[in-house]
Amino acid sequence: MRSFGKAGLAVGTALLLAACSGGGGGGTRSASTGTATGLTVPQATPTPTPYGPVLSASIDPLNAALGQVSGAKNLADLGTVLTTVSTSAQTAAESLGKADQPAAVSKEETVLVLALKLLAKDATTVRGDIKSHGVCALDSAEAELGASQGLAEVSAALSKMAEAGYSTTFAVPQLPKQQSRSLDNGTMVSKGKLRGEGVFKVDNGTKKDAVVSLVLNGKAVHSVFVAKGQKASVEGVEDGTYDVYVSEGADWDSEAKAFTQSCAFTKFEDNFPYETGSTSTSWEITLQPVADGNAKTNDVDPNSFPQP
Questions:
Q1: Residue pLDDT, tens place only, 235-270
Q2: Rounded to the nearest 10 degrees, what angle do helices 138-146 and 75-98 cross at?
Q3: Residue-by-residue DSSP string for 293-304
Q4: If you write DSSP's letter for every residue of 270-295 in order, what string do you get?
Q5: Does residue 139 sit in the same domain as residue 205?
Q6: Which domain, by its residues, includes 220?
Q7: Given pLDDT bands bounded at 50, 70 and 90, which one contains residue 31?
Q8: Phi then psi dihedrals of residue 262, to 5 deg
Q9: For 211-231, what is each residue's pLDDT tens digit?
Q10: What kind and span of H or E run contains 237?
Q11: Sequence-distant (≥ 6) Cβ neighbours of residue 73 within 8 angstroms
């Protein structure tokens, strides 16, 4: 403020002196000074960023994340990759939602943003299914992602963008298809000598297939496949005191000897003794809850479950 006041006084003095010197000179100088202080400098209009690079910058990280899916070596690796996929898809949706898109692709971008949000949700769902054993094998988890609606809709939306002249590097990874494999009811998944006199019966009244194992000293000696809603038995069980473990689920992988979907792992609290000559050489269990049932089961960590 002090600087401005001094400048004002100096100009006023100059004007008075000019007037005393007479004539039009003072008037001319006064007009010139006023014109100089009234000039306005025009501001440059910023050039908008072309839409193509904005679209690519949003989609490229998602494409890179999806490219890592097939490289996952186990479910833990895949869970980490799925987190990146979800984050990348959500970030892309937010970025494009704020972008200035050409009118020609306005509708297509709206569809793309919604598809990206759905893909982010789908990837999170698959990760949750891994944690809850909804999928319990790498191929099965990859297949769930490959079948996701969000992935299909993002691909379709970007194809529309490409038709309008805005291409990206996006590519849907090659992922396995979901399977539904099973065995004939009563198939022995693992089979000991079966030279004893014991009989073991299983009633599977649940809606899942099951593999029931007689385990001796931590090792599965006899394991039988019992289809959902079916009964099966093992005859010739040798003498010994067995623990009974049950694996339930869908899509039995015979090579891995495990279900790949909807997995559950339990163990009966009581053990099952077999002794030649005893009246207790035959045991029967039901996998579904029954009235007045006298057996309890506990959940088992899959990593400590005796493999058939």
A1: 999 999 999 999 999 999 999 999 999 999 999 999
A2: 20
A3: ----EEE--GGG
A4: S-EEE-TTSS--EEEEESS--TT---
A5: no
A6: 188-304
A7: very low
A8: 50, 50
A9: 999 999 999 999 999 999 999
A10: strand 230-237
A11: 138
